[in-house]
Amino acid sequence: MPRTKNAVAARTKRKKILKQVKGQFGRRKNVWTVAKNAYEKGQVYAYRDRRTKKRNFRSLWIQRINAGVREYGMSYSEFMGKLHAKNIDLSRKALADLAMNNPDAFKAIVDAVK
Fold first, then answer.
1. Does some domain include residue 55?
2. Burial code of 38-68, b = ≥16 C-beta within 10 A, e = fewer?
3. How much is the pTM?
4. What's the whole-number average pLDDT of the chain?
5. How confident is the model at residue 4 (pLDDT cuts 50, 70, 90)?
6. 41 φ, ψ to 5°?
7. Range of the domain at 44
8. How many domains does the structure of the chain reveal?
9. Is residue 19 part of a domain?
């Protein structure tokens, strides 16, 4: 029985990955073995950093709320504790947006909590 080869599918697979790494520097963009490693590593980083992004944004929102609340003589932890005690259910994302873009509404929330 003759040996079959699958050159067409193999070429398609390689072209797909080389298209993904187009624009990278050096041999990563055109040498198959280097490109394959770069692509796989990039996919690992993408997966990991989709989760890291959520952490970074939460951290940013907390910093913005803290900065907004400090103007009214409170700390972030104090504010959040009182907010939960008053059963005001606003996300950190919404609070940070109010603190940055709508200081009057944020002041009203701080006054309601005090």
1. yes
2. bbeeeeeeeeeeeeeeeeeeeeebbebbbeb
3. 0.77
4. 94
5. confident
6. -65, -40
7. 25-113
8. 1
9. no
